[in-house]
Amino acid sequence: MPPASAEDRYRKIYAVVARIPRGRVATYGQVAVYAGLPGRARLVGTALRNLPDGSSLPWHRVLNAQGQISSRGGIGYEEGLQRHLLEQESVSFDARGRIDLERFAWDPETRPRRPRKTHRARK
DNA sequence: ATGCTGACTATGT
DNA sequence: TACATAGCCAGCA
A20-67 pLDDT, tens per residue? Predict the structure, then answer.
């Protein structure tokens, strides 16, 4: 099988992002794997970067492996937007601005459900 | 072709 | 936990 064209790769990435359920999040690496592009987490970031503003894709549900919102570096971008969109769907951040992936990570194998409460002691 | 950049990550201190 | 590094590779000048 010849290598996928850039267009196909983007399309696959967008298709995966579109499947992330409300109230759940996925990491760049995770999206890459499900898109059949293991190891290309950076490409996922690039694809989302190229996303037009009015897109209906739930791009805000994609985070880095640390459970944090990745910086765009660009001036003018409000990191608060992504956080706000997530909080609106009940995804909560801890005091350090990170999301508990144990609770909110998307698992495509399981059916959408409400995140379990965290009664687990944290370290 | 070549070199640099980066919405990334795993690993080592 | 927080940085630093190295590997990564598509996009772009």
Answer: 999 999 999 999 999 999 999 999 999 999 998 889 999 999 999 999
The two three-digit tokens of residue A112, written as one number: 């959408």
What count of Cα atoms within 13 Å lies in the side-chain half-sphere of residue A47?
26
Distances (CA, A) of A97 to A14, A67, A70, A79, A80: 26, 9, 11, 11, 11
User: Which bases along strand B come within 7 Å of a protein CB atom?
Assistant: 6-10
User: Mind giving me the DSSP string for A17-76?
Assistant: HHHPPTT-BEEHHHHHHHTT-TT-HHHHHHHHHT--TT--S-GGGEE-TTSSPPP---TT
Give kind and range of the element (H or E) at residue A86.
Answer: helix A79-88
Protein-contacted positions of strand C (CB under 7 Å): 1-2, 8-12
Which two three-digit tokens encode residue A92? 């909560």
Nearest-angstrom CA–CA distance, A82 and A69 = 8
Instruction: Return the closest nucleotide (C1') to the Cα of A66.
Output: B9
